[in-house]
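Predict the assembly for these two chains.
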Amino acid sequence: MSVLEVLIEYRQAYLSGIWVTLQLCAVAWCGGLIAGGVLALLCDRWPVALGLPLRGISRTVEAIPILVLLFWAHYPLQSALGIVIPPFVTMATLLTGINLLTVYGIIWQGIRAVPREYIEAATVCGVPKTRIYWRIKIPLALRNALGALTSSQILVLHLSIFGSLISVQEIFRVSQQINAVTYRPTEVYSGLAVFFLCICLPLNLLAAHLHKKYSSERA
Amino acid sequence: MEDEARTSVFEVRDLSVSLGGREVLKNQHLSAHAGEIIAIMGPSGCGKTTLLRTIARLQPATSGSLRFEQRWYSLTEAGVAEPDAAFHPCVTYVPQTLALWPHFTNYQNAAFALDGASAAASSITALAQRLNVDSVLMISPARCSHGQRQRIALIRALVLKPRLLLLDEVTSALDRGNSERVAQLLREFAAQGGTVLAVTHDLRFAQLSATRMFEMDLSGNLVVTRGES
């Protein structure tokens, strides 16, 4: 049984796994990008009062493996609170939180990396501060951040496979189930690799292209 | 002081600036009348750019004050924190780095501060034709040579119709012909009542355009080399 045959025979299962994975990522991508972007703007406004504590939280979360966070969120936390949350919601919330902290860090770094001379050039031209912020600072910050943002969203996709550990029916768990039936791990996981390759390779190329394009455009 | 205020466009008094613990400028005085073009030359690192940035109120001074037209401004830290609309863009500055915004085309760079003014398009195009950069107006600054970008940055400043124009090495990458075009344009700007304070290493450009020339030494002192002090 070749990889192609596995993919064809279990296409329904793979598709349902892909669908769940994409749903997980859609929540984490949208939530993380929007909330992270807003947080970055707020941190730029209050860099000490908000920026420093948030950086501390971000560094702490980064230091803890996602697996540990996931088990905390799925077992002890829910037990302590006396609630039961569907695994999909737990995973989506955790991924969103992690993505939010990553996105805020990248965008805030992008904002701080906007060369002061661009802001000064607008100031001496008499451009109001609000217009400078929205037409000069933020667009340039996003350009600084685009490459890293794209890479971080690929990472979210990769992290989504940890959902299998709390029984989320995403693509990795589906692959495990197919393997349990077929006993063909090479073909089954190669099929999984094809899925990740199809999504991540173009995104990686896009990230590299954006980074190269915008890092060479300073005038 | 009142007589001086009636005749000169700007005046800097007792200007001292320290950078990284080193006193770059010490008790400098400078003033200019409407229609003057002042060129400041001198070795690299002597404080020419610092002088321009301080007058543009982008950099705080240790001490000193600036009068522009009838109003006095403090140049110390508190004085540069919040530039006001009465100052910019009446006083505008073209930095050596040019700082053209890379996400705009050259035309958008020149027109951005005009905020949709109807006369903008024609004045930008006319200036671009005079300075030989009309062919690059619709492309990104990143695709232009440094000399082209220098002229675009100059257009961005001139279309604002400033009364005091501060220029930092705007002809450093220009060939002789384009440098002469810039000098001619600045003479016309001055003839209409504008004042220019230009830092340059280009002696020919300075001789072509300036009504007064200063040499700044490494101690940050200004010495007149042409015109009156």
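The radius of gyration of chain B is 17 Å. Chain B has one domain: 2-226.
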